[in-house]
Design goal:
Oligomer: single chain
Radius of gyration: 22 Å
Largest sheet: 3 strands, antiparallel
Number of strands: 5
């Protein structure tokens, strides 16, 4: 316990308090010895980073519970599944800093529920560098992160429907399933072009309003 507290930059008394509040998992015990690992250290650093940014201990406790019930990043991506997305490993400090004051426990818990964030042996992982960068850019433009995450849920539903359309179109008859992966750039081109045209139409309608 003393070694863990020193690595985390906190006192043993604070560590005991976190244990009593169940903010960290119990240690692995071998007889009278309690062993802590990098998972405990990462959790303590996350707690410290959030508290330093003005979050309440009760809010941090809710986030800790969300992380404890969060999905493994390999479950989110699917073992062996083809993907063009690059997961991003985040330090606790980077996780708290990337969205500034919008990195509230409530928003981080929502990102966990949405499947943007996962865990890998105690580390925090975002499933997509592109989604992380876009989300951060929208927040910098003044859009609340809660609204970005709410929009992401709607986009997810539409993306699933589009993926179903393309899969049904390509994976028919005697065509091998691999064709879906081979031809996916065509699907992305169609979606990008249709979205661009849809944005043009919507912007024109807004400009024509009295």
């Amino acid at each position: 316990m003393e070694e863990l507290a020193k690595e985390a930059g906190i006192t043993v008394r604070t560590l005991r308090f976190y244990r009593e509040r169940k903010l960290i998992q119990p240690p692995r015990r071998e007889g009278r010895i309690a062993w802590y690992d990098d998972t405990h250290l990462a959790r303590l650093r996350t707690i410290s980073a959030l508290l330093e940014r003005g979050h309440t201990l009760s809010g941090v406790a809710e986030l800790a519970e969300a992380f404890d019930h969060g999905r493994d990043v390999r479950d989110l991506l699917g073992l062996g599944a083809p993907t063009e997305e690059t997961p991003v490993r985040l330090t606790p400090e980077a996780l708290a800093d990337v969205f500034g004051g919008e990195a509230t426990p409530e928003n981080l818990a929502a990102a966990l529920e949405l499947g943007y964030l996962g865990t890998d042996r105690g580390e925090i992982v975002h499933i997509s560098r592109r989604l992380l960068d876009v989300s951060a850019a929208l927040v910098r433009e003044g859009i609340p992160l809660a609204d970005v995450l709410a929009a992401a849920r709607r986009v997810r539903d539409h993306a699933e429907a589009l993926a179903e359309v393309f899969t049904d179109l390509v994976a028919t008859g005697d065509r091998p399933p691999e064709d879906v992966h081979r031809l996916r750039p065509l699907a992305k081109s169609v979606v990008e072009a249709e979205l661009s045209l849809a944005l043009d139409r919507r912007l024109r309608r807004r400009e024509q309003r009295p």
